[in-house]
Amino acid sequence: MPIHSRVTRRLGLKAALAAAVTAPLSSTALPASSASAGERPARGHLQVMSFNLRFASTTEPHSWAVRRPVMRELLNREAPHVIGTQEGVFAQLLDIDSDLGPHYDWLGTGRLHGSRDESMAIFYDTRRLRPAEYDHFWLSDTPYVIGSNTWGAAFARMVTWIRFRDLTDGGREFYLLNTHFDHVSQYARERSAALIAERIAGFDRSLPVVVTGDFNVAAHKNTVYDKLLGAGLVDTWDTARERSALYATFHGYKPLTPDGDRIDWVLSSPGVTAYRAAINTFSDDGQFPSDHLPVQAFLGLG
Fold first, then answer.
1. Is residue 165 domain-resident?
2. Counting C-beta atoms within 10 Å of the first and last residue's C-beta, which end of the chain has fewer, N or C?
3. Residue 278's closest CA among 54, 55, 77?
C-alpha cells in the first residue's frame, strides 16, 4: 500500500524526501498556504525550464565541481519559476538548491528510491508557486513499484509530478510532469508516452498541464513525439509566438549544432499560451553547465 504523508514546512518537505528511501510516495495532498510575509511574488508569464543536468561526476573534464559555478550563474540569471530537471543526484540537487537561494524549494526522489540515484526533481520559486499535491510513478507495467522496469529500458525510468497553485494568479492551479525517457529502447519510450497520456487523462481535466523532459528522440521525427501530441498535448516550441535560435539540445560538450534535433521539450495542454520559447546556450569561457542545453518556455496558463 502507498504511504500517505502531509508536510507543512519547507525544510520538513526536504527532510521527508531525503529520508523516504524505503517506500513510494503516494499521490499526496499538501496544505494550502500563502507566500511568506514581506515577499512579493514575481508577476507576468510563468517561466518554465526543462534541464538535463548531467549527473554529478568527479571525472574531468566537465566534472560537477567545474560545472557547478556555471550552472549557478545560468540559473540565477534566468530565475525560472519552475525547473523540471533530469539526472540530478541527491548531493547535486542540494548544491543547486543552495545556489538558487532561500526562495526556492524542490520535490523529487531517486528512481530506485535511494538518495544516490538519479532523480526527476522539480525546483520551484516559492514566491510564485505552492505545491498542492505531488506524486511519482515509474514507467513500467507496475508504475507504483519502486524502480520497476518491465519494458526493456536500459535503466528504470520515472515521472515526478506536482499540482501547483500560482500565488500571483488567484491560486490558479496547473499540473507539471517531469520525466526522462530511456535512451536505448524505442519500445520503452513508446510505452512511456502511452502511460503518461493515460495518467494525464486521469487528472482534473479543467486544469492546464505542462510536461517537461528529456525524451531522447527528436521532435517531429519519432512516433513517441506523435503519441504525446496525439494525446492532446502541444509543443510549446511550435506554438510560441516568439522563438530563440534553434540548436540541438544535446551537445555532449562539443560545438553546438544549429538547427539540430530537439530531444528536450516543454509540452502543454492546448489552452496554455506560449509567449516565447528558447534554447539557452549560456556558457562561461567555453564551459557549459551540462551536456544538454536547457529549454525554456514563457507561458500564460489561460
1. yes
2. N
3. 77
Answer left, alpha or beta for residue 224, where phi above 0 means left and psi between -120 and 50 means alpha. alpha
> Does 9 map to a domain?
no
Cis peptide leading into residue 61 (ω within 30°): yes
Q: Residue 147: name the closest of 184, 177, 109 by CA.
A: 109
Report pLDDT digits (tens) over 83-128.
Answer: 999 999 999 999 999 999 999 999 999 999 666 799 999 999 999 9
Task: Give which of 145, 97, 152 is closest to 125, Cα–Cα.
Answer: 97
Cβ atoms of 91 and 56 within 8 Å: the answer is yes
Q: Per the domain annotation, does 256 fall within a domain?
A: yes
Q: Which three cell numbers stand for residue 124?
A: 520551484
Q: What is this structure's pTM?
A: 0.88
Domain extent, residue 127, equals 41-300
Residue 212's closest CA among 189, 196, 199, 198?
196
End-to-end CA separation in angstroms for the chain: 37
* Total number of domains in the chain: 1
**C-alpha cell belonging to residue 191:** 510505452
Q: Is position 23 within any domain?
A: no
- Contacts of residue 284, defined as CB under 8 A and 6 or more positions apart, other chains included, come to 69, 70, 73
CATH assignment at residue 201: 3.60.10.10
Q: Would you say 283 and 46 are in contact if contact means Cβ atoms under 8 Å apart?
A: no
